[in-house]
Each structure stands twice: as C-alpha cells, then as structure tokens.
C-alpha cells in the first residue's frame, strides 16, 4: 500500500500555521511511517515534475506570507479568506464528491475502497457552505466595519464549527486509511487522493487564519475562555 500524504517533505511546518492545525485538529494525518505527497508524486512518472513544481509554488507562496496576516487590517484578511478559501472550497468539494462516487462505484469491492467517502464529503460541503454563508452575510461585514466585538456569540459558533470541520477531516483520514493508495490505483483514485490532500491543507490553513488571527482581533481566546470558564 502506498501512503501519499504528509503534504510535502515534512509535517507541514512551512505552511502558515498548518503544523499547529495538524496537531490540534487532525493528528492522525501525521503518519511517521508514510511517504510524503512529494515523494509519491515523484514516483508517478512523466507528470511527477509538474506536480512537484506546483507543490513547490504553493509552499513558496504560503511561506512568504507566513506571519504577515497578524499585522494586516481585518478587511484585507477577510478579502484573502474569501478569495483564497471560500471560492476554492466551492470548487474543490463538488469535484471531489464526483471522483469519490466514481471510485466507490467502480472499486467498491476492493479492500481499500473508501466506502462512504462521497457521503462524508457531501456532508462536509453542506456544513462548510452554511458556515461560509454565515460569515459572508453577517460576520465578515461586521468585522470589516470594525464591529466584531458585537458578534462574540457568532464568533464562538464559528469556532465550534471549525472544530467540527477538523473532526470531518479525521473521518476522511479514517475512510481513506490515511490517504493510502493501493499499488495499482487508477488515475481517478489517484486524482481523488491528491485532491483530498490539497483540501485538507487548505481547510486547516483556512481554520488557522480565522481562529488564531481574524477572530482573535475581536474575541481574544483568553478573554473568551475566561468568560465561559
């Protein structure tokens, strides 16, 4: 069996905030005996260099931005989250659901088949869509106007939902055996797991920027915890 995830060459410490999120929300994705996504990509043959170059580009962009958002105005970070993550998730999940249904239909009898993955992804899509709409329609406009302190209860709800998203990633990890491909996996199966790897990193960075940076400007964690402790 061929593990294809620890995202790049390491637990993803070079991706802004991703190490903390991996540890907090999805520790099972760190498979010490596994093969990294980069190593798996390099083993794929002709397109390996293309995949490797794209991973390097993404990692370079994120590394160059690391630490910059803490000093940015909330409106700039909100614009980044909307463009980089909300739009991206809306593109990723329908395609991943389509691929998962195809893999389950064609390879349903295979011992490594991720049975139930498509339904789990669809549940995540619905939950994430509701979460993003609440942010876009109510929370983010308040925060962009500097009125985030009036939305403390909604921010608490968003933080709770972000924890649920982490639990959903753990479920995806369980269904896919840690994103482990069988030796003769078809191109659809490979595309599915590569797409899931990207979704996991994107969603965890998304959660980090909201919970640890954006929401912290309106409701510092220590104050929130003290008021509910």
UniProtKB/TrEMBL annotation:
<keyword id="KW-0408">Iron</keyword>
<feature type="domain" description="Hemerythrin-like">
    <location>
        <begin position="78"/>
        <end position="217"/>
    </location>
</feature>
<dbReference type="GO" id="GO:0005737">
    <property type="term" value="C:cytoplasm"/>
</dbReference>
<dbReference type="InterPro" id="IPR019903">
    <property type="entry name" value="RIC_family"/>
</dbReference>
<dbReference type="InterPro" id="IPR012312">
    <property type="entry name" value="Hemerythrin-like"/>
</dbReference>
<keyword id="KW-0479">Metal-binding</keyword>
<dbReference type="GO" id="GO:0046872">
    <property type="term" value="F:metal ion binding"/>
</dbReference>
<keyword id="KW-0963">Cytoplasm</keyword>
<dbReference type="Pfam" id="PF01814">
    <property type="entry name" value="Hemerythrin"/>
</dbReference>
<protein>
    <recommendedName>
        <fullName>Hemerythrin-like domain-containing protein</fullName>
    </recommendedName>
</protein>
